[in-house]
Give the backbone structure.
Amino acid sequence: MRTFSADLHIHTCLSPCGSLRMSPRAIIQSAIDRGVDLLAVTDHNTAAMVEVVSHAAAAAGLDFLYGMELQTREEVHVLAYFDRATDCLSCAEAIYPLLPDVPNVPDAFGDQVVVSLDGTILRTEPKLLVNSLDLSFSETLACIRRFGGLPVPAHIDRAAYGVLAQLGMFPEDTACQLVESDADLPPTLREMTRMCSSDAHYPEDIGAARTHFRMESVSIVELERAARGEAGRFARCQCE
């Protein structure tokens, strides 16, 4: 059993809200500098950067989960984690047609660039990524699970894009063991387990909030077992 210092909500330079400084090498170096040894990149509605960052993480000896941050029809953000790149990329391919065909305007929203390991720009993403998919909250959770992923509602306590603000409650058919929150969970959600993440958009933000997961290994099954506190496992938040 090992305790992992995890930051599982990090945006790369592909997210329009992410700094162009969020290249693979910059992300990994910042994780190392801040003592983060398990990370996930979670760009908005795309997984185009997960493989290159995973290679950089592996070369540095860091553990990695493949991820995305999906935006539902109700403007709720949901983090999606996968053990395998193929599953993450397949989910991304399935949701891309459900993203509105609205072009990005870099001067208004920010650049959306796919880069190589050394930060060389390979292409730009033409569709605006920070838009809602044509999927409800319930349908988004089901879609993630259909591709073998773990859905984690993001920053549920925030006024913008949090499920509590947008929907008022968790729908009855959308039980999640793990949820991301900046604050302690309300009594009505005590059966769930809180996860903390930085939601980093700049290298210096990585690790500012993190979760210590006590697990046998890195997998989404082990994340859920840690969230349930099984057999000595745990999930404990740390915020600066």
